[in-house]
Amino acid sequence: MKKKNIFGLEKNIFFTGLTSFFTDTSSKMVYSVMPLFLLSMGSSKTTISLIEGIAESTASLVKALSGLWSDKIGKKKPFMVIGYGLTAIITPIYAFVFSPIQVLYFRFAERVGKGLRTAPRDSLIASSTTKKSMGKSFGFQKAMDNSGAILGPLIAFLCLKFLPINYGNIFLLATIPALFGVFTIIIFIKEPKLETISDNGIVKEKKKVSLRNLPKKYYFFLLIVFLFSLGNSTDTLMLIKTYETGVDKAYVPFIYMIFNSVSVLLAIPIGKLSDKIGRTKLIIAGFLVYTIVYLGFGVYNSLNVFVLLFILYGLYSALVDGSQKALVSDLVSFELKGTGYGLYHAIIGISLLPASLIAGKLYDNVNSSAPFYFGAIMAFSAAMLMIVFSFYMKNQDKKKASIEN
Known about the structure:
By secondary structure, the protein is mainly alpha-helical. The protein has one domain (5-192, 207-404): MFS general substrate transporter like domains (Growth Hormone, Chain: A, Up-down Bundle). The chain contains 15 helices and two strands. It has helices at 11-40, 45-58, 60-73, 77-90, 100-127, 134-162, 167-173, 175-188, 216-230, 236-243, 251-277, 279-299, 303-331, 337-365, 370-404, and strands at 5-6, 9-10. The chain has a two-stranded antiparallel sheet with strand order 1-2. It is globular.
């Protein structure tokens, strides 16, 4: 039976993207003003970075476990409902906190929710589309993510600039789209079915869900992701350095919106391109663009330059985020997709704690340029390793082809 599509996308892909749109509208309303909210409490740059790093890293184990668990039980949707539901519950509570330590507690709880949902969500996307459309599907997911990331900061900007509204009221307002995201999952998203029949009609044996069954090339890729992520500290420091140019605080979320706008415009076209020319080329290009962006933040202290760099940062995001997720799907089997995505997201989250701590310490104790130089070095190193990975993949494909012939 032919599947019904929406705008050329499988229904699960479309509604998962819609869920991300609603949730990112909410979370980016919060995220775009959170640095200013913490600064108003007297937090240092190190404290702000540490809060983000601890929240992400300590919840990263949940990402790996949720992916593994979802593979074992063969269900993705329950993890998404609980994970997105936690975000909707936590968001309004920020309006009532009055110290950085309380922000840390609730950021941790909210990130646990993200940890529960992220790997099963990506696994559901990968399991609901074909390999030839994998880049397009993750490109759509990224575009919807960042569409919400445009609308969220825009709403926050309008509230701060034109309405007599404080940070607490923004957090309460952000709860509404978060709830819409949860309802979308419950009503419209269906569990993908595990295909057990191969093209030649033979029943395929279901593989045991185990980390040992993940291929070596996948772990090689995770090593590169870890190296890059060590220099990929929270975007909060970029927003803080932009704010320190003297720009009106209301414009900080608006400037962050520029980055997300560029990513939205390019995510789907670049996703389609990755289906045609391969993921590794685009990831390498993205790492090099990131290197340029971080060097720019290190060298300059100009609002006009930073706006240009946020545009390039959007290009980096479109090149890398969807391509990396599609590559994970290419590297692991159907039965292990949740596990593969869980480890992938866990590596990124775990590395954020040392990355944020290093960046915050460099910002406070050396100068505002030091963390960006460090990030540029890590990104360039990851790009070089990714080139090696590309040659490794080509050799593996040649060996596989020779064996089959």
